[in-house]
Amino acid sequence: MIHNRKDNHKINVLHMVDHLGIGGAQNMLVNLLESFGPDIHASLCILTDRILPSMSERLNSAGIEFQSLELTKLNPLGLLRLRSFIKKENPDILHTHLQFSSTYGVAAAISLGSERPVIVDHIHSNPFTRYTVFQRIGCRIFAPAVKSHIAVSSSLKFSVQKAFNKKPEAVRIIPPGLNLDIFKKSCDESEVANLRRGARRVIGTVGRMAKEKSIHVFLNAVPALLADEPDTRILIVGDGLLLKTLKNLAKNLCISHAVTFTGYRHDIRSVYNAMDAFVLP
Fold this sequence. Notes:
Layout: E1 11-17, H1 24-34, E2 40-46, H2 53-61, E3 65-68, H3 77-89, E4 93-97, H4 99-110, E5 118-123, H5 127-130, H6 133-142, E6 148-151, H7 154-164, E7 171-173, H8 189-196, E8 201-206, H9 215-228, E9 232-237, H10 243-252, E10 259-263, H11 268-274, E11 277-278
Parallel strand pairs: 1-2, 1-4, 2-3, 4-5, 5-6, 6-7, 8-9, 8-11, 9-10
Helix pairs in contact: 3-4, 4-6, 8-11
């Protein structure tokens, strides 16, 4: 058991996420867990074994209890284990994040019948593009039992309503929050200088190396940026499946000398301080 309910006045919220690897949804979730006040007892269940060391460090620093169940999507027995876990934890609210949790987690909670917690499903991406057909069918079947779906934008709310056949009032828009206190701390000036490498102008972006992030659009604009100011350095911060493909694109565009792929970085203050301009393609 990952928590001990000593104070019955606290609301006990069990968050559930597919993994804590690289991703904006994962970062948003940890930001949320770090910001809870004294009236909320929050804990985290990670369905698989993918956990970034930096995420573990942040959770430990915030005193957030978490546990990995190390489930696999193709093992139906995992659903029974998940059901037992939720029953044992006995949360007031189950708050699910990402596709695996939206189906397995919600199904396991529903199977508890009258003992099930209030279910809130957080949708971070378009169900029509990021969910499999089976996941969309499952979410549509389970939707009546979900108290509220949370969407991060108005356009996503419309997609959730259409995909899961939900009434407008059952889908809430809550834009992702950001803890700005992290930017009040001083950054490593030597690392900022190392990232800039003496360049007159540094332009960069931060994100997963994935198709929907459109990093290739940014790279295709770099020749024009270099023509305008040859002493320009480009920072591409993040990791993902398309990293090798994007490096090859930079090579084919003959801009490799000006582009630095940093990989995943947790020292985001230094990264942003090294940039003169941030690009979100």
